[in-house]
Amino acid sequence: MALSKSWRTRYLFYASLILIIPFLLSVLDLHRDGISDGPKRKIPKKSDHLILGPAAGQGLPNRLQCKGLKAVNMDDASRSRGAISGSDAVSFVTVFTVYNGSVRSEPTSLVTVGNVSYSKEERSLAILHTFVDFIQVSMPKSSVIILTDPASHFSVKRNSASLLPIEGDYSRGRLMLQRIKSYIVFLHSRLEQLQKAKSVSHYVFTDSDVAVVDDLGHIFQKYPQFHLALTFRNNKEQPLNSGFIAVRGTPDGILKAKIFLQEVLDVYVSKYMKASRMLGDQLALASVVKAHLPFVAKKFGKPEAFSSEVNGVSVLFLPCAVYNWTPPEGAGQFHGMPLDVQVVHFKGSRKRLMLESWNFYNTTSKLPDMLCLVLKSGRTKYDF
Q1: What does pTM read for this prediction?
Q2: Burial class, 205, CB count within 10 angstroms (exposed 0-12 / middle 13-18 / buried 19+)
Q3: Residues 91 and 144: beta-carbon distance below 8 Å
Q4: Can you state the angle between helices 251-271 and 175-193, rounded to 10 degrees?
Q5: CA atoms within 13 A on the CB side of 304
Q6: CA-wise closest residue to 371 among 57, 54, 51, 74
Q7: Once rounded to an integer, what is the mean pLDDT over residues 16-34?
Q8: pLDDT tens digit sequence for 309-335
C-alpha cells in the first residue's frame, strides 16, 4: 500500500512537470522575442539646422511677443546699453582651453553654420569669438579676460579680449574644478594690483557660451552693497548655476569673493570629486549656501532678486530667468522670455543656436528680433 502511494506521488509530479514545461518555454520565448523584436528606444537625432516653432509665452505679460521674427513689444531704445556711469568699468572673465588632437578633424566631423564649416576646435573658438562679439555690442567699453592653460595655444582676434595663462589641470575631467581655482588665482592677483589702480573695475565671471544682450553695469549700481552675485533657479538639487558670478571690484568685494570661492572649492574637493567633470561646482555652490542659509530654498522658488550674508560675505541672488536665461530646450521655455532678459546661456547642444543667432543679428542689427529667433528655436537638440 505504501509502495502504491509512492508511485502515485511520482506519477503526479512528472505529469505536472510535463504540463508546466511547455508553458515555461513559451514564456521564455515571449520574453526573448520582446527583447529582440520589441520597440527599441530611439535616440533623437540632432538637427544640423535651426527648426523654428511657435514662440513660448505669447499673450503673457512681461514676456517677449514676436510676430514672425519681429519683436513687437521690445526695441533697442528700451535697452540700457552704455548705461555705466562714472569711472567704474566691467570686465568679463571666462576660462577656455583647447586640447591636443582637436586641431585637425576628419571631413565627416565638420559642422556647417551659414557659409562656414567648422572642425571641433574651430567650433569652440567660434563660440568664444561670438561670446566676445555680443559683449562688444551690448557693452562696448568692457574688456574680456580669458583664463587659460599656459600649454594651450590659440589666439583670439578681438581687440577687447586678452589671454591670461594660469597654471593648473585643465583636463576635461578637471575643468570645472580648475575653473574655480583659476578664478581664485585671478582674484588674488587683482587684489594685489588694486593698490596701483586709479579706478574700480567690476568683474563678471561667465561661461563662454553666453550672449550678453544688455548692459550689466546696472547691477553694481542698483545693488551697491553686495560683494558677490550668483544666479538661482527653482531647482531642488542644483538651484545655483555657476555660469554667471559677478564680483564687485573693490578691495573688500574681491577679498570676500575670494574667501567665498575658496570655501566652495574646499567643499568641492571634499564632497563632490566624483562629479568633478560636470556638476561638482554647482553642487558645491548649493552646499555652501544652504549650510549658511538653511531656509533659502523657499526664496529660490520666486524669480526675484534678494540678498543674504553667507559666512560674512554679502551675496546677491539674481534670477536665472533674467541673468542666465536658457533657450527653449531648458528652463523657462513654457513661460517665454522675460522682457528684461540680460544674458542668454546656450548650454550643451544649443551652441549652434548661438552662432546662428549672431549670424542673424549681423543681418538685422536688431537684438530684439534676434531674441525672437532664439525664442522660436524650439525644443531641438542641435549638432554641437
Answers
A1: 0.84
A2: buried
A3: yes
A4: 160
A5: 5
A6: 74
A7: 47
A8: 999 999 999 999 999 999 876 555 678
Say if residues 138 and 214 touch (Cβ distance below 8 Å): yes
The grid cell for 352 is: 549652434
Count Cβ atoms below 10 Å from residue 145 Cβ, excluding itself: 18
What DSSP string runs through 161-193?
A: EEEEE--S---GGGHHHHHHHHHHHHHHHHHHH
Kindly report, residue by residue over 147-161, the tens digit of the pLDDT: 999 999 898 988 999
Phi-psi region of 47 (alpha: psi -120 to 50; beta: other; left: phi over 0): beta
Nearest alpha carbon to residue 347 among 319, 369, 377: 377
Average pLDDT of the chain is 85
Mean per-residue pLDDT, 240-256? 96
The structural domains of the chain, ordered by start, are: 84-375 (3.90.550.10)
The string of pLDDT tens digits covering residues 349-379 is 889 999 999 999 999 999 999 999 999 987 7
Q: Which residues of 256-275 are buried (b: 16+ CB within 10 A; e: fewer)?
A: bbbbbbbbbbebbeeebeeb
Q: Is the pLDDT of residue 3 over 50?
A: no
Question: Which residues are 112's β-sheet partners?
Answer: 117
The residue type found at 180 is: I
Residue with cell 588694486: 194
Secondary structure, 3-state, 35-86: HHHCCCCCCCCCECCCCCCCCCCCCCCCECCEECCEECCCCHHHCCCCCCCC
List all residues 6 or more positions away from 295 whose beta carbon is below 8 Å from its beta carbon: none
